[in-house]
Amino acid sequence: VTERSASPSGCVPSPPSSPAPPLLVEGAALWQGAMAERVRLSLPSGQRTSHRLAWGDLQLGSAGNLGSLEWSVVVLDELTIDLEVSVQLSGQAAAGGAAAGGAAGGEGGADAPGLVLLQEVARGRTFRGTFDPAEDARLGGGDGMSAENDGVAGSRVEAVIFDFNNAFSWWTDKEVELVCLRVRPGGPPASMVPPLRLLQPLAPLPRSICSARGAFECGVAPGLATLPPRGAWEASLSDREEVLRFASSVDEWLAAAEARRPAEGSAAAVAGGALLQEVLERVVALRGLCKEASAKVAEVPARTAVGQNGSNLLPLTAELLAAQDDRTSGAVIDCLSGDPLFDELARRELSDIVARDTEDGEKLAEGVAQAVEKGVLPADLVPPTYEQIDVMGKTADQVAQEIIAALPKQGGCVLILVGLSGTGKGTTVDKMKQKLPNAATWSNGNCFRALTLLAATYCAQQGHEGFDAACLTPENLADWADMLEFVSFDGTFDIRIRGLGLDVRLSEVANTLLKEPRVSKNIPAVAKETQGEVVKFAGEAVRKMGEAGTVVLLEGREQTLNFIPSPYRFCLTMSDTTVIGARRAAQRIAAAAAPRAAAGEDAAAAVRAALAEVAGAGR
Question: Mean of the per-residue pLDDT values for the chain?
Answer without folding.
Answer: 77
